[in-house]
Amino acid sequence: MVLAGPTAVGKGTVSAYVRANFPEVWLSISMTTRKPRPGEIDGRHYHFVDDEQFDRLRDAGEFLEWAVVHGRARYGTPRRPVVEALAAGRKTLLEIDLQGARQVRQQMPEALFVFLAPPSWDELVRRLVGRGTESEEEREVRLTTARLELAAQSEFDVTIVNDNVQHASEELVSLMNA
Ligand code: 5GP
Asked: What is the Cα 130 distance to its own chain's centre?
């Protein structure tokens, strides 16, 4: 299953909830060239790598998909752990951006593509400002990305509205069980 949706919609919160409450779900850990935020742990939230490491992995074909997100850092899904989790019959969840979701659709069209939507645009802006981890300039970049991402909702198989993290997470997992 691929979970995508606009910035600040709460994808990270939903996947953290799933990680904590549904141990039967295997969550892919992405590689990123961005710096860790306070509280983020290498190997748990992301594998934090530098540009050279990222280039090496990309050139070796180690990514199932990768993308530059918000015009800044690069993010990618390591291919091998996903293939292994699927082979082991695990419920496999990728939380990635829209560009990445499109690449996965090309490579694994049998995946289920889920769009996490905000209850409203105003609520999305409120969450983005409320998080307080980005500068004003960074927020503007992310809102521009979010507008484009919201327009892509129709490309997805299912939409889940994130008005409540627990409900959204339970809906997600019940789709994996279906
Ligand atoms: P953040 O920097 O806030 O953790 O994540 C920024 C964006 O990068 C989010 O939209 C998230 O879904 C996306 N992202 C995280 N990991 C990956 C990945 O492996 N591939 C792609 N394409 N996007 C990712």
From this structure: 20
